[in-house]
Amino acid sequence: MTSTELPIPRTAVLALSLAAFASGISLRITDALLPRLAGEFSITVGQAAGVITVFSIAYGLAQLLFGPLGDRFGKYLVVAWGCAACAVTASLCGLSQGFSQLLAARLLAGATAAAIIPLSMAWIGDVVPYERRQPVLARFLIGQIMGLSFGVWMGGFAADHLGWRLPFLAIGAGFACISALLFAVNRRLPAQARQRRAVEGHPLRTMVNEFAQVLSKPWARVVLLTVFTEGAFLYGSFAFIATHLHAVFGVSLSTAGSVVMWFGFGGLLFAIFSATLVRRLGEVGLTCVGGIFIAASLLTVGLAPVWWWAIPACFVAGLGFYMLHNTLQINATQMAPERRGAAVSAFASCFFLGQATGVGAFGLLTGYAGTQWVLVAGALGVLLLALNFSRLRAAASRRAAQVAA
Question: What are phi and psi of 5, to 5 degrees?
């Protein structure tokens, strides 16, 4: 920040974190609802998982639109409009009269939620210098972390006590309030924080060119392929943890959702100590250790003889996930600085398309092998991708050091 630039209001990142909280709830609200939805609509759990798959597909594909829109009209403003749209689409989910309508509404909900977290990250990348960015991103992601965990618990509690409609209506009301806050904060932002980039030419052609420029960078392709694989193996298996605890150990869905909440507490621990962990482990150490933590945790949940082993396992999985994923996010914000909106949107697109692929594939696997082997497969996949990215990141650092010398 130069001496002529006005400071960013303290509430700016907080408001984005609240938006991320609501987005996280919207994403994970259906995890613990799957058995209830299967019974409600007389379908299998694998078929019910379609509510997760369509959300993730729409979320991933919509990134191709929102990244360039954020660059053109201002990232913070587009996030505010995205939350307003989410208020409508979440409410439509709660008002659905059949499973087909619910799928359509979840598709729309995924498309509108796509504006929130990636553009928030890109905006932080624009206004916070790289050397101070990872702790700021970690604090922002506290909202998403707690939203993901609270969403699973909320879905389980609703499945046992409230029915499946009420949580979607509550999410819609929450988004409406958050969008009003974002619009108010946006009006107070200094000019450099509301910056929009003039784009010439046809919007579709410009969008394609921007993503092509991102993909032209070798390291960007590594990051994008890694996060796609992470989404497939981690969240493809994570989505079935509550169902596994309910089906194998007979615990209630609200209890299963409460267990999965410990994932968020592990992520919160990372957010609190992120600066220390980054300083001591570096990016290579964070991804390696994080992958080992996740793999060990998923194996523990899948193979445990008693259900309560899942409590510490989910906690460690949350810590490991944010060690790995936050490092990938940092690389995403810097892999194409001149096209940061498009770059971070491509990152999120790959992550959620990976989730859609993983949930779809593992949903089919549950019908043949059960949830236990879904969790084992997820553990092995995450371990391999984390070790591979650590190796590639170390090699890239050595090359950079040689060039600098």
Answer: -90, 140
